[in-house]
Write a structure and sequence with these properties.
The structure is a homodimer. By secondary structure, chain A is of the alpha/beta class. Chain A has 3 domains: 8-71, Arc Repressor Mutant, subunit A (Orthogonal Bundle), CATH 1.10.10; 82-186 and 317-344, 3-Layer(aba) Sandwich (Rossmann fold); 194-315, 3-Layer(aba) Sandwich (Rossmann fold). In chain A, 40% of the residues lie in helices and 17% in strands. The first copy, chain A, is built from 11 helices and 14 strands. Chain A has a 6-stranded parallel beta sheet with strand order 4-3-5-6-7-13, with helices on both faces. In chain A, strand 8, helix 8 (215-231) and strand 9 (240-243) form a beta-alpha-beta unit. The longest helix of chain A has 17 residues, at 215-231. Chain A is elongated and about 80 Å long. Chain A binds chain B through residues 146, 148-150, 152, 175-176, 178, 212-213, 218, 221-222, 225, 229, 234-238, 242, 244, 246-247, 250-251, 254-255, 258, and chain B through 146, 148-150, 152, 175-176, 212-213, 218, 221-222, 225, 229, 234-238, 242, 244, 246-247, 250-251, 254-255, 257-258.
Chain lengths: 359, 359
């Protein structure tokens, strides 16, 4: 390590990255061999290998089996007409609706759409973005994984920008990356609407079940607090059940069960997803609670209708899909250069899981 | 799979576990060979192997290289006089203080203390508890990993209970396991004291930085809310910065920076650890904010004094260590059988990072 605290391989990586950025190493060009690089920069082959692996990881260089290392060629003039959609779960109903909207726009313009699932796993997201750089796509749409947690591969997004590949965040965005192009659901409004509805139906003891590691949960919680504040109901943090990706199927019920065991007179429960709502209703039924007579349940989800009769907040995904596709195409064709920051309002549908309380 | 939805190997595992629990298979006894078990239960060897691996995982059976599988022998009459302390980070100053208190008690009674770090990793915690079952310990003290997330290896704790090995949670406890023996810090009170102190010093716009995946953060947040409520300052969820294990070094500053960029007049910041406080002060200094003239900073930690001059909430770890050791020894020697649920109050030390605001 030198006195700036950087290792030799890190410094070499920076030198080579600079050479790529200023065009000394050309797009698509074959790099010197490991031995040649070691000689040129007076470092060991081990150092060269570590520097190269960083460059590969960040998407500046691609290793081709038996042929050597190449500077990635992103400056082809002709477009590939391929777009990648990276979502948490590609089989979900919400994504199917989103696709309906997107495809209409994309196919009209002759674009092909590739879809991959990250399973809400940050490492998979990183992997697919790296792969996307090799596959030469024209644009990228990402539903970020664990979007309340600071992005660990911000560098890869910088690489995308460097190569002029537009990308668009949907559903959520990483903290500190809000200045990027994004089309977000108005989760604040979703939390607000759900809570206000229950309050207007005479509920006061309202439990909120929110995810603490995605943007959606954090924002819905803010809307929940706002709705209480507006009518002067005081906020009780005990009424909030925070769940995490790891315990999302267990924590909501453990939290509700604990409140009921402590004789908290829960009147309504706002669930971040309809699956949580469904699980809760099953468990509440087992212990003899009636929905909506004893407790009202309200769900939140990307689309309506997965859980019949559930009172819920949802979004019109097909419309979102159309917007996403149109904006990305404009970005690709340089028809739109300013940053996009669009907020989609939620809708409320009233089912049979909520009921007016007599005060 | 049969009609109850359980696989063959799962059913076999349950049958064998039952045989161990009711004494048909004796403690320390060698099990039948895989072939013999396959014949006896009319299943394939593959099924036997999967059932055995579950039993090994849950600590009922131990595999001895070249000798076969044995039912774990936990009923030896003589004690091993060994205790395992499982903490997140064994080199931490807090653990050193805790040890000072524990060792005094343990050595007096002739006990040996083994210490392992989980690095706040649930899988490591599971691994060390499994290993502990083989090493034949008399008792276990655990600082749980990610203690706000539902425990994924609850079964292992049940195995410990079955073998009559007392265990004690310290610092935090998993949701749904609060009925277990535990000695907890009063994190609620810590959040309350810190916030009340800042309020009394004339602060109103108080930012709280809390961890959303440990018990400590969730409880401190509750105390923070209570302190605001008592004096009628309304709660703004925007003032809470939730961080996670994964982004604990980045998120606090990203959150504070965003608030300042949006011209929120932050007057005080409560940090869950002194390391976060230190990092924040460094970054605030870079952008020209003076501590405590512009912003007061208050820390929370297990022990005092790691950060000189920092106003902070801390606990007397040495005293906790003494209590932990005494209680565990009583449990081991059956002098104390009722469940222990002890709460340790925090202390406030006033340093030079907070200052009275003129209203």
């Amino acid at each position: 390590m030198n006195k700036t605290g950087r290792t030799k391989y890190y410094i070499l990586m920076e030198i080579m990255k600079q050479a790529i950025l200023n065009g000394t190493i050309k797009a698509g060009e074959k790099l010197l061999s490991e031995n040649e690089l070691a000689k040129k920069y007076e470092v060991s082959r081990h150092t060269v290998r570590r520097a190269l692996s960083l460059l590969i990881e960040e998407g500046y260089v691609t290793a081709q089996q038996g042929r050597g290392n190449f500077c990635i060629d992103r400056f082809q003039i002709e477009k590939t007409k391929r777009i990648l959609l990276l979502v948490r779960e590609k089989e979900s109903v919400a994504v199917q609706h989103l696709l309906l909207g997107m495809k209409k726009e994309l196919f009209r313009s002759g674009y092909e759409l590739l879809i991959e699932s990250t399973d809400n796993n940050v490492e998979k997201e990183r992997y697919f973005i790296q792969k996307a750089l090799d596959r030469k796509i024209d644009g990228l749409i990402i539903e970020p994984s664990k979007s309340e947690i600071v992005c660990s591969h911000q560098q890869l997004y910088e690489t995308l920008r460097y190569y002029g590949i537009p990308y668009l965040f949907i559903q959520g965005v990483y903290p500190g990356m809000r200045n990027q192009d994004c089309i977000l659901k108005d989760d604040y409004q979703a939390g607000y609407l759900a809570t206000r509805y229950l309050i207007r139906q005479g509920h006061k003891k309202i439990v909120g079940i929110f995810s603490s590691d995605d943007h959606q949960g954090i924002e819905q919680h803010k809307g929940y607090v706002k709705a209480l504040e507006k009518v002067g109901i005081s906020y009780h943090p005990e009424f909030i059940i925070w769940f995490h990706e790891e315990d999302r199927w267990k924590k909501p019920w453990i939290g509700v069960e604990e409140l009921l065991k402590n004789n908290v007179p829960v009147e309504g429960i706002i669930c971040q997803t309809d699956r949580i709502a469904r699980e809760l209703m099953k468990n509440l039924e087992i212990i003899g609670k009636k929905i909506p007579e004893d407790i009202s349940i309200i769900g939140n989800d990307l689309v309506e209708g997965k859980q019949k009769n559930l009172t819920m907040i949802f979004y019109h995904q097909q419309e979102i899909g159309e917007k996403v596709a149109t904006i990305l195409l404009h970005k690709i064709e340089n028809k739109r250069t300013e940053t996009v920051d669009m907020i989609i309002p939620p809708k409320l549908i009233i089912g049979r899981t909520t009921k007016k309380r007599i005060l």
